[in-house]
Amino acid sequence: MSGTMRGISEDMDRQIVQAVFDEDTMSSTSVGMSDLSDEILLCILRHVPVCDLVRNVANVCHKLHTLCHDKTLLTNVSLSEEYLADDLLVRHILKQLANHVQSLSLNGCYWLCGSTVELLARCRGVTHLDVTGCRLTSLRLSRLLSSLSLLRSLAFDVTPGFNSAQLSSEAVDSLSRLSELRQTLLTPSYGVVPCCAQLRKLMLQFDISDVTREGIGVCCQLMMGQSSVPHYQQLEEFTARLAPGEVNQTLLLLYLAVFSVHVPKGLKVFLVSIPGPNPAHWPAAPSLAQSLGQRGDLEALQLPRSWLDSLSLKRALEGNSPKHLSFSRCPALWPQVFQSLLEGGVKDATQLTSLNLSGINKVLYSECRSVEDQLVPDTMSRLAVGCSNIKHLNLMHTHYHHENSPGLGAETHLCASLAKLTHLRSLTLPACALSDGLNTHQISTNNVSPSPLFLGLKKTPRVGLQNYKPDSESSLSGDSTSGLTLLLAGCPFLETLELIGPGFVSALPRLEPCTRASVEPRGMCAWARGVGDAHLAALEALPRLRRLTLAGLPGVLKGTGLIQLTRQCNDLQVLSLANMGSLKTMNYTPALLDTLKQCTQLQELRLEQPYLNANASFFEALSCCSRLQRLCLISRSGTFDPSAAETFMERCCHVIMCHMFMGGTLVACRTLQKALLDRFSVERSALSVVIYPLQHEDLPSVIRDIPLTLLDRITLFQSHVAQPPHSSPL
């Protein structure tokens, strides 16, 4: 029986024994799982992955065998992230599910061979199918669609070589009945959109490089000759998310051409996300916004900053009750956004559950920001009262500078205003928003200019274990956390938290040019420098924390707060740390090692630091994360111990992604990569190992070969809070 099932069983047995314990007679009756009713057992089994149900639990006893094949457990099945499910097991599962499953997801199952994916044709009752990331050619898709006449929702990748002319008439008939479609475009194409006349939901992800591997530019001119142009007469939801590149933007405008002529009457969700500071202009955006506001049923809106003006936004929101709004990098819309949300510009602001204000009030590279350029606590307090049901909030790339003046209590802090959002589940904040005021000790130290003679004689301080005190109090007078304490007390149910400093830029090249264009230099915000170990330690008040991102925090000195944090947040599953403390040395290594030893539930770790030393001690501590599945290390001048890395992979048998972009030679990196693949790829069919010098000129093409599902999950290091994910057709 799997560890998941065994844990659930032991928990249930423990609770039942406690419940029947008789204190008067001091006797107890043990009740096992076999004594539970079928209804209770089915409730338990719903939380067990289908692979474990079919392969392990069903073989325990006759009763469990019968229950594991109950149709209520096999109707909606997801094999996404079931990394241990190889081709043989998936074929066995599909055989068991063929007559039951109606909704099936193989999203991200990049390791399955094409012949296994083709066996999905046996599941003739499927109405919702997600094969994003799977190996699927035009002909294979045609055979699949020809067998799935009941299909109503489809998600797949449009890969190079895709040709809609190869689809059979039966396949086209199946597509004509689709109501939901999600396409990940890896080549310029309309995909199957022209065949889908009944679409109500269209979700697009554009991930096309501007140049081929041979260095030849990619263009969309071939698309102009296609006779079938998409029409969206019945469309209700349109979503498009773009990777950087001119080709992606050009292709998006081709998809949007129909909107310039006719806006579907039922359209109520329109989300377009374009990275970078200069999105392509679309003249039809104002008329689209006006059309969206006329029906009064707008649910979600996101447009690039150059597509909307204040008047268009006002018309779009007026009389509507949206659930999701995103105004990322739209500083010109700042006044209108709050006017609409706070002064009756929307019909019912309490319907809003997701709000992205990333970079909405940003003034580039200015230390002298006026009040109008910063988040105002009173305004945010009114927002929290009016939009009381917000669950997801993104304030990245904004600023708040708290003036710790006499007579002003903690209740005037921005965090006190945000604490009123009691339903928050995910939150992204700029680091300076946690500060209680300028750290006067730090500033005075930074402003003192020692004499040249002293600089010449000064001994470089040593960074080592002798100075490491896990529970020591910070000696800096400005390390107050009263504002943060109020926030944590008011939002105890936070599951995702991102704290990102104003100067953070990831070293990976895929999104780096777009990111750098909108991020100010590290160290520009003095308030952000005051956020340190005490603030990290305070996060222990979030017992439900599952995902934590900490990036660009120069005020973290020793990392002792990480130890205290992970000691209490026992269920942390995703941890991302980048550019903590000094960039000239890694001064929190001892604390990091102790932190990793406590992260027993961790499944993803991303660590980016210029001078990371992935030695034997590091990998030994990392081996304590027995449930780790995905690992990404990024270090410009970092080093690694090959034998320690191999030992770690042997101990942590669930790791299927090991990406290390470090220093060192290409030969050393390739040698370790080959050793890991040769040793572990047979038993881990989903294994993805990429070890490459970070500064090598061929790195962009290497990254392009990484499965997109892994690249998006951990390698890019970008905020996803309050970004509407592509709604899975499932």
Automatic annotation (TrEMBL):
PROSITE patterns: FBOX
InterPro entries hit by this protein: F-box-like_dom_sf (IPR036047), F-box_dom (IPR001810), FBXL18_LRR (IPR045627), LRR_dom_sf (IPR032675)
GO cellular component, one term: SCF ubiquitin ligase complex
One GO process term, biological-process aspect: SCF-dependent proteasomal ubiquitin-dependent protein catabolic process
UniProt xrefs under Pfam families: F-box-like (PF12937), LRR_FBXL18 (PF19729)
Gene3D superfamilies to which the protein is assigned, alphabetical: Ribonuclease Inhibitor
Domain (F-box): residue spans on this chain: 30-77
TM region(s), chain numbering: none
Protein's name in the database: F-box and leucine-rich repeat protein 18
Organism: Sander lucioperca (Pike-perch)
